[in-house]
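In the laboratory, one determines a bound structure by crystallizing the protein with its ligand and collecting diffraction data. In a computational setting the workflow is compressed into a single prediction: the sequence and the ligand go in, and a structural description comes out. We illustrate the idea with flavin-adenine dinucleotide.
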Amino acid sequence: MNLDESPWDVVVVGAGPAGLLAAGRAAMLGARVLLLEKMEKPARKLRITGKGRANITNMRPLEGHLQEIQPEPRFLRQAFQAFFNRDLVALLEAQGVPTRTERGERVFPASGLAWDVADALVAWVRAQGVEIVSHARVERLLIREGTFTGLVVAGKSSKVPHEVEARCGILATGGLSYPATGSTGDGLRFAEASGHRIEPLLPSLVRIDTRPAHPTAQGLTLKNVQLALWIDGKKHGTEFGEAEFTAKGLAGASVLRLSRRIVQAMAAGRKVEVTLDLKPALDVAKLEARLLRDLDAHRDRSCGQLLKALLPAKLVDVFCAVLVLDPSGSAAQIKGTKQRQLLSLLKEMRFAVTGHGGWEEAIVTAGGVSLKDIDPRDMASRKVGNLYFAGEVLDLDANTGGYNLQIAFSTGWLAGEAAARKAAGPSWDGLP
Ligand SMILES: Cc1cc2nc3c(=O)[nH]c(=O)nc-3n(C[C@H](O)[C@H](O)[C@H](O)COP(=O)(O)OP(=O)(O)OC[C@H]3O[C@@H](n4cnc5c(N)ncnc54)[C@H](O)[C@@H]3O)c2cc1C
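The predicted complex, in structure-token form:
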């Protein structure tokens, strides 16, 4: 194929999950599609998702997905109706990648390899006839009289001309997180330069720094604990699940799920704290009764031994330090005020949040191209004709659980479909 042969029907910028689905769907509908990726390989980020296992979607019904998405989940209704979890699973199975559904309805490739998902999608895109060009960094968009007409590719490439003409463009350049994978916010700059509003960009699904931090407990992962978020002294929700002690604070699934609100509150200069309930299954009265029973039965034991019965080993020294207890001293030290302090530490271990991980560590970007400037029926820009957006570049993000990738897949599919239809013009004769 002669890549100089212009114009293309659809040019897609970014070969992440959103761009791949957009390009594949547009080509499936008969469009001549060029997919430009600035990195060496398509879908760098997808290949490292889910700790290398790719939690590609979630089998909860549509309403369940919407509950996990911010800031305007209803925006996604049409995209999810066009292409949802079962469609994705079917597409991958047809490409020879069976899937497996695990706890919490999370879906993974049965092989446990994110790499398989990425390779299968790239193969599917190629099979639809899409031309994928790597090492092609788009520098800016070409817009004439308010309509997209093409784009400029940086440097000189033997594969694509400096200026690419196309009837329609789809921006699927991702957000700002994990910039080493290629997601450096280029599309956000193109969007802003062409008159789109950008909602404030903040790292999300990210670890937090706390005071105190308990570095001696680093690496300890607690299951079935509850974290509560406090903003300016007022409780703003709880999350049940896993929490992990790090060198500087806390991480783990329940921390990540609270992180969006934490980062936003900190950016607004508010006082943020979290409390950790190590025994959420027991109310204070039940826990107190159990503690008194243990103390009574084991008065001859050391403090350390008694605490070991109540806590993971890595927290025993932490508790002794906070409560000023001698671990080798008698458990009988734990009485009166110390007993009340121990109870409150078990139910409400308090941390001031002093910071959070940056873009290099955040799993997603909160904020992005304002949804007010995008039509949810087809992902078309309301500011520039023939221009479409898909994936994390948009002001949409979700909790962990496979929801972020499904957003990328669904918005990509819908944008590809709409762009193909637009490029075909009046000759369009319906979807196959
Ligand atoms: C470590 C990690 C683990 C994750 N795990 C999960 C998970 O298990 N489940 C889940 O649902 N979500 C997960 N996510 C989130 C998910 O990966 C993203 O939400 C998703 O990849 C967004 O897809 P996208 O196509 O919009 O953008 P991206 O995947 O960011 O892709 C954008 C592409 O555009 C390219 N690009 C950018 N600018 C240009 C340009 N100027 N010219 C050409 N190309 C350009 C980039 O190189 C990149 O390939 C994880 C994220 C991270 C960082």
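The first helix runs from residue 17 to 28. Keep in mind that any predicted model is a hypothesis to be tested, not a measurement.
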